[in-house]
Write a structure and sequence with these properties.
This protein is of the alpha+beta class. The chain has a single domain, classed as 2-Layer Sandwich (Alpha-Beta Plaits). The protein has four helices and eleven strands, in the order ββββαβββαβββααβ.
Amino acid sequence: MKGLRRHSGRSAGFQSSRFPRSGKIENVSFPGQFVLDSRVIHRDTNLVRVTAYLSLGSNLGDREANLRAALAGLEVNARLLALSSFYETQPVHVLDQPWFLNCAAAIETDKTPRELLQLALDIETAMGRLRKREKGARNIDIDVVLFGDCVVDEPGLKIPHPAMDQRRFVLEPLVEIAPQVRHPVLRKTMRELLAALAEGQTVRRLP
């Protein structure tokens, strides 16, 4: 298959009808492949599936368990194609809060951008996210940063994510799983965007 390559990453299998608020998800698995092509037509269903890229973060509670629970929720409604390593990242904008654990995921979905955003919000709500302070601490955050080569500018939904090219905690995990994927507006690859980013935020890849 065109654009198919192997990647070593970690994923979580969905274990129940609700997302655990604490504790690690057991029996994790990873399909071990991801597709660079942004659109795949499945002839058996006539659905056009799109490769979307998500940025996930957590800085409250068991951060790794939170990320894995969110990934498990996504896998109920989409196919996980690739998962980056976990990165410990320095907060930006609001500095007086704990450091984050971040990762990037590539999924294959037949949802619209708006439906995918709603799925992300539903998972956040199910996991008990409280929005007390803008850009403040949260147990889970799921952003849709790319949706194939689509450009969306609607109230409450901007794709590509308008700040992704300025965020090291987004770009470093993305470069790990999709270095040649191109920003549809800036026309630069993820690797090129990361190389052009000024030094600043500390981002540490965990072993």
